[in-house]
Design brief:
This protein is an alpha+beta fold. It is built from 16 helices and 23 strands. Helix 9 packs across helix 14 and helix 10 packs antiparallel against helix 12.
Length: 504
């Protein structure tokens, strides 16, 4: 059998291992969900050891489909939920507590205190990021100040910090027996600790936050010229395979969508929703509430940057309707329920469960449902939930056009929600541009597979990857402009109702 590339895709709700052949097609797949832990309102946690256990399980299942097992693999790449933060003992591998998930808002007081000098944009010039509970740096500060034994271990050099990519790569390459402690530039750019120009941890910010440099991983390119380490033959892969690529999940999707030229954009519809625009080798500063982030860095080439609009709640809202309200048994049933009514019946649902991310960055916001009358029913609520994702994407796209000077002409889409025709048609309508789904929609895993394949010569160059991208379906806008304007105006009114809910 020809060699394959293994992509570990560790997401917010589940972990997957997908194996890709030279045509970029999946040849094996395994997936397992993990527990979502909510200790208090606004707090969201994961068990790092459960994530590692599930990762090993999906690896074994996927590799089991290959005739030669792990020996049929050429390389491994890791993509991950980005800002989720873990602190662990480097001697034992035991976490000091649960991972603090990117959606968690417990660091609001820390962010507010940091903003007393310099405001929301205190570190934006250095990091490209506003002060927000979303990012990893404040989460680490909270851990060091509130988790028993964490600060003492950090000061003694006995602790390791990292986002989920670091955690998994450390375990894959040996764990307590010499595991490699690294993070790639895309994940590092989401910590609020990295100098975006130097691609190094910023000593001034570390000092302000009280974070010892020694607990942080080494920052490396997204695609390694030399492997960071190899897996042990006694591990889940059952062979020694180079671990040589890592990308934050949204940057991985940008690569998987072959958005290699400035001005190309993609939107991923997952737990949250993330619109990224390639800006080339220039880091474009946002004045419209977007994030400046690293898109990818291949070997020793210059880093490629992106503007990003991050939306906290997209698919998670459909899960909430399923699990918390019991409107349907399976998430895919939301489309039929939403299609049972002609329109939203005047109902708008703004899912600010963790505050509002781009372009508002308001941690004081909370979710609202407005426009309810006796006429409204389950179908209207389901439709309003789907439309919320499209409206939020529209807000981000408008901000992106202002910052970049490049109006959106088409939108490449991926993620679990892109098989919802009602949502995708409505997205094309409110954006007034064509929405295009690729034939291979597993673009997050595919993107990091591409990065691993480029590192090992499995694929020769970016041009060869672009040739693999093929459109599957396109939705053209059909909505009248006056209706589009009216609906969007009411959405903006609904957003205003979410603000100033959480007070000191």
């Amino acid at each position: 059998m020809e060699k394959a590339i293994a992509a570990i895709d560790q997401g917010t709700t589940s972990t997957r291992c997908i194996l890709f052949n030279a045509e970029g097609k999946p040849v094996a797949h395994a997936q397992m969900e993990h527990e979502q832990i909510y200790p208090q309102p606004g707090w969201v946690e994961h068990d790092p050891l459960e994530i590692w256990a599930r990762t090993q399980s999906v690896i074994r299942e996927a590799v089991g489909h290959l005739p030669g097992g792990g020996a049929d693999l050429a390389a491994i790449g890791v993509t991950n939920q980005r800002e989720t933060s873990i602190l662990w003992d480097r001697r034992t591998g035991k976490p000091f507590g649960n991972a603090i998930v990117w959606q968690d808002t417990r660091t609001k007081a820390i962010c507010d205190a940091l903003g007393e000098q310099g405001g929301l944009d205190r570190f934006r010039g250095t990091t490209g990021l506003p002060l927000a509970t979303y990012f990893s740096g404040p989460k680490l500060k909270w851990m060091l100040e509130n988790v028993a034994g964490a600060n003492e271990a950090a000061q003694a050099g006995e602790a390791c910090f990292g986002t989920v990519d670091s955690w998994l790569i450390w375990w894959l390459t040996g764990g307590p027996q010499g595991g490699v402690h690294v993070t790639d530039v895309t994940n590092a750019s989401r910590t609020m600790l990295m100098n975006l120009a130097a691609l190094e941890w910023d000593p001034g910010i570390l000092e302000v936050l009280g974070i010892p440099h020694g607990i942080l991983p080494r920052i490396v390119p997204s695609s390694a010229q030399e492997p960071w380490g190899v897996t042990d033959s006694s591990g889940p892969f059952g062979a020694e395979i180079p671990v040589c690529a890592a990308l934050g999940d949204q940057q991985a999707a940008l690569v998987g969508q072959a958005c290699f030229e400035p001005g190309e954009a993609k939107n991923t519809y997952g737990t949250g929703c993330f619109l990224l625009l390639n800006t080339g080798t220039e880091a474009v500063n946002s004045t419209s509430g977007l994030i400046t982030t690293v898109a990818y860095q291949l070997g020793d080439s210059k880093p490629i940057f992106a503007l990003e609009g991050s939306i906290a709640i997209a698919g998670a809202l459909i899960q909430w309707l399923r699990d918390n309200l019991g409107l349907f048994e399976r998430s895919e049933q939301v489309e039929a329920l939403a299609a049972s009514v002609e329109d939203n019946g005047g109902v708008y649902f703004v899912p600010a469960f963790s505050g509002l991310f781009a372009p508002y960055w308001r941690s004081d916001a909370r979710g609202v449902i407005v426009g309810l009358t006796r006429y409204a029913n389950r179908g209207h609520l389901a439709r309003a939930a789907l439309e919320a994702t499209a409206y939020q994407t529209c807000e981000v796209a408008q901000a992106m056009a202002v910052d970049s000077g490049i109006p959106l002409r088409t939108l490449k889409v991926d993620g679990g929600m892109v098989y919802n025709d009602l949502l995708m048609q409505f997205q094309a309508d409110v954006l007034d541009v064509p929405v295009i789904r690729p034939r291979i929609a597993e673009t997050t895993a595919l993107g990091v597979a591409y990065a691993a394949g480029l590192a090992t010569g499995f694929w020769p160059d970016l041009a060869s990857l672009r040739e693999l991208w093929v459109a599957d379906k396109t939705w053209e806008p059909v909505m009248a402009s006056d209706r589009r304007t009216s609906l969007y105006k009411d959405w903006k009114r609904a957003v205003q109702r979410t603000l100033d809910w959480v007070s000191d």
